[in-house]
Amino acid sequence: MKLAQSLLFITTATLLSGCIVVASPSYANYHSQQELVIDAENLAKLNVEAGAGSLVISGSEQASTITVVADIYTEKGNADNYQFELTEAGTSALLIAKINSSSGFWQGDSPHIDIKVTIPSRLMLTVDDGSGSASISDIDGVVEIKDGSGDLTIKGIKGNLDINDGSGGLYVSEVIGNVQIVDGSGEMEISEIDGNVDIDDGSGSIYAKGISGNARIEDGSGDLKVRNVDGVITIDDGSGDIDVERAGGLNIIESGSGGLRVKQVEGGFEINK
Predict the structure, then answer these.
(1) What's the CA gap between 72 and 97, in Å, rounded?
(2) Which of 141, 150, 169, 241 could, after both became Cys, cross-link 258 (CB 3.0–4.6 A)?
């Protein structure tokens, strides 16, 4: 009997010592709005470092300043837990909009900063974005984007476009210049490109149309549809259907698994399986 009581005591003590403590949730319940403005007369480029939150960058031919409006959502007890600054050095400006730390258990949205940026169209643009949707439009210069997660929409670029995208939908249209894309996952739609297109995609469907130059597509998995390419299309595909219609030429290095449909290819047509 004493042995049984001792074993019961040891078991109970072990269970108690291994109990799980659940922390109470935190809330991003404090909102503030701020605006930063600098003169862009002597600037040639804007660099953006953004963390969690939505990002909208619009070019304007009438703009003579860089104007940033931020909606900042933080915890009421730690309302200053963020970086939001716009500085210039030489001919470049730097915008930083980041939450310093958002670790923990959050009820609802975690801390984030939603920003809207208006810049002169002529400025070159480099963006390093963490998470959240992003939209960039009407830029008359070279654009380079590194995006973590969230949908990314780009439209109206007059210059070469370089994208390194992690996950989320990617939508690119109306670009005068060459487009280079490295994409992790998520659907992709590319249209109205006056230049060459180079795509290295991990997974997700791809729909590309209206390309005046050549198109090279290396695709891991997902269906691939291509329409109206004036130049030569080169495809290296892992898995998924391939559907090509109206092209100046076609070279399929690897068709992988999936169906193949080809129609109205004017130049050479070669398949190497």
Answers:
(1) 9
(2) 241
What is the rounded distance in angstroms from the CA atom of residue 164 to the CA atom of residue 155?
Answer: 16
Q: Round to whole Å and give the CA distance between 184 and 201.
A: 6
| 109 three-state secondary structure | coil
CA geometry: angle 66, 169, 84, nearest 5 deg:
30
Strands 112-120 and 134-139: unpaired
Helix and strand totals (H; E) in the chain: 1, 22
Structure tokens at 59: 């070019």
Q: Two tokens at 94?
A: 């730097």
Q: Three-class SS of residue 2?
A: helix
- Residues with Cβ within 8 Å of residue 181, at least 6 apart in sequence: 163, 165, 170, 172, 188, 190, 197, 198, 199, 200, 201
Q: How many residues does the chain have?
A: 273
Both tokens assigned to 249: 């030429």
> Counting beta carbons within 10 angstroms of the beta carbon of residue 224, is it exposed (0 to 12), middle (13 to 18) or buried (19 or more)?
buried
Give tens-digit pLDDT for 85-141. Answer: 999 999 999 999 998 876 555 455 778 999 999 999 999 999 999 989 999 999 999
Residue type, 17: S
Contacts of range 18-23, beta carbons closer than 8 Å, 24 or more positions apart = 23/104, 23/105
Q: Is the pTM of this model over 0.70?
A: yes
Residue 168: pLDDT over 70: yes
Q: Give pLDDT, residue 74.
A: 85
